[in-house]
């Protein structure tokens, strides 16, 4: 019976719009996937020696100390990025499958998710190094089993949490509070959690605890999903009562307002679009890795620009790359209406500018690390608004992946938000400002570097009209191809 | 109003549309019938410049649709649900289309009030997004939205499908009223021969992309059509 499911999955994967669209994209994704794996494996090996030699601490203890953050952060990341188990369930309901089979297959798929596998690439090399350094094999092995069980606990927790919208903000908030308290040395949660992870190692057979938790979570999520396999339960579309909103205050933006009003509703009312806001909020904290010196490789001055671009540009990068894909589900309508492309584009542009400005204000917390750090952020914000906003829209004009906005309606639906591809496509956009800064930094001083990046940003404004015209031409020449690509909903 | 010149569409060696010349007069109601795959939707999509023809071109009010966009301000269409914005409520959608077509909110409200019967209390003030409406109700929204801003050309693909009997009768009345206006050209496709003969002044039968019949509607038309499809 599983054979049928697997064949269906196989076909839906290879026949999907995004995969059939381009070999280049496949190669690109493949390349980044390998790169990430290599980085994680070397991280696993390097962590041991780094902690032992540079920090003079016990590697296992140190890792145990931070595991709690690892797990909570992992859960957050999953919530934002991991795809929920999706199979086209409705047509299967009447076929002679046991419902349990359908659910087990949907769950089984998640086991091989990137978010589960990637940990193995860290922990296995790390454990091998541990064993080589004469840590007892059995203990290390069972410690590993415990951790793997915990990772999969996260997997199912995520499935359960996905049914509740607000819980995740509470977890995120708790993580932020404890993280800050620990950094400011008021309260250290790890003193309470470390013993738990350490006992997993010291008393080997205690690994049974996470394993049992895992089984319980599996049963809970399994039951709740099996129970929901009805057209008017989990498979029903959630209809909330909603209010008509006029958003008349936006009319001051003139003709752009027509689209701006729509775009704001788009973001508010579609989870897929909303998640760009959540991700950009998370990116606000990305700079902590750099400016606290937490990660040594990031201490180089050039990396500051890299971090700052992400801090202020999370929304810009996440949202902008998918213009016009956000409107894919009603693209034929847009193409038959009397629309000025420039007004349409400038609405998206204003959204990105506003989001960047808001991020810049929120990022003022970085003043804690000194005004120079904040200067980098402001400079990066100028560059984002002046240059990246245009590049992102330009690149987006070539992206023809349809976005199914309505997909969040079903319990089994494609709840995921935002995918890894998006972030991978973002990296090239970092190269230029880093280069500009490097030239200024090494030629004269950091301030010349900042000045160069800022000047590039301001100069970017001058090209706004030219870039918009260029994008308009792309829209026109690619119109039929885009319409055809958007017809495929998956 | 609409003229088609040497229009063909070939998909991978399959000719799905082949119309040498077809002229649709201004102010007429034009019906298009044919079995599945006859090319009805393809024809409408080429009229709207959503599909690029392999050869030939379409003129709308003397404007080549693939060269200028001027025809868009006088044309409106509802082909399928990709013409609806799922995350808007009905009112928001009507106002959005209104703004695009240069209509103020009171104008839109005035137009909508004429269709209260047609909506049957299931469209306005529903506190639901369009994506959560039933297929029939979505269709009502789409059809009425094409009437905003007094377009000169209205294209409706399968407007009767998914509608309940009461609404079908009301829609027929609406279409007849529209076609009484000498400035409004209306194009309809349908699988329902009775409906088409009732509302259209001229009916064209497509078969595998070719015009096989071109009839001015009379009392005999329904019989002739039934005879054709009963072969």
UniProtKB/TrEMBL annotation, chain B:
It comes from the Bacteria. Signal peptide: none annotated. Residues 2-225 form the ABC transporter domain. The keyword Aminoacyl-tRNA synthetase does not apply. Keywords: ATP-binding, Nucleotide-binding, Transport. CDD domains: ABC_DR_subfamily_A. SUPFAM superfamilies: P-loop containing nucleoside triphosphate hydrolases (SSF52540). One of its GO terms (molecular function) is ATP binding. Pfam families: ABC_tran (PF00005). This is ATP-binding protein. The lineage of its organism: Bacteria, Pseudomonadati, Bacteroidota, Flavobacteriia, Flavobacteriales.
